[in-house]
């Protein structure tokens, strides 16, 4: 079977959408509201994890209370919304998406970014026609995407999880792929350091072009 039978499931934030500067800015603005010290990009990439309250546990030395989590989550999303409009697609993403589609490949997006915010963003970049489906988070924020990945692939119908490769920037993307019977490739340009990504035991790449190439080979 041709490698173009491979289906790609793209993550959005930190993968197709290069928003790490907005994420760090929003994180530090939210931290300031609750009296926490700012964090560097390097430290963020070393500590960030899903579910997100575990990230705060590593920073605070304890798990945040439910009330604290709600305050920090609301503050982050408010500051992120103020900043993400200045962000764009990762370099070369639009060309890769068009090339994969034109070669007969299929692809979709599954993100833990809010669904109602995700759809207009994707449309605004003019890339929606490249995808069979675009799904964002419809429930509470901060959790993993394993069950959402299963539902996403099921909704696609004809897509075989065994010939599906998830491309993301976080260990949770690999966990979700494994849970759904798919493979994964992880990209270093987003939320995790290379050392953190190694824990997932899947291929790690520095560009999305490499990700697409490796994905095609994985499921070929």
Automatic annotation (TrEMBL):
- InterPro entries (alphabetical): HAD-like_hydrolase_sf (IPR050155), HAD-like_sf (IPR036412), HAD_sf (IPR023214), PGP-like_dom2 (IPR023198)
Keywords, sorted A to Z: Hydrolase
Q: Which GO terms describe its molecular function?
A: hydrolase activity
Q: Which domain of life is it from?
A: Bacteria
Q: Name one Pfam family in it.
A: Hydrolase_like
Report the EC number(s), separated by commas if there are several.
Answer: 3.-.-.-
SUPFAM superfamilies assigned: HAD-like
TM segments? Answer: none
Name used for this protein in its record = HAD family hydrolase
The organism is Streptomyces catenulae
- Please name the taxonomic classification of the source: Bacteria, Bacillati, Actinomycetota, Actinomycetes, Kitasatosporales
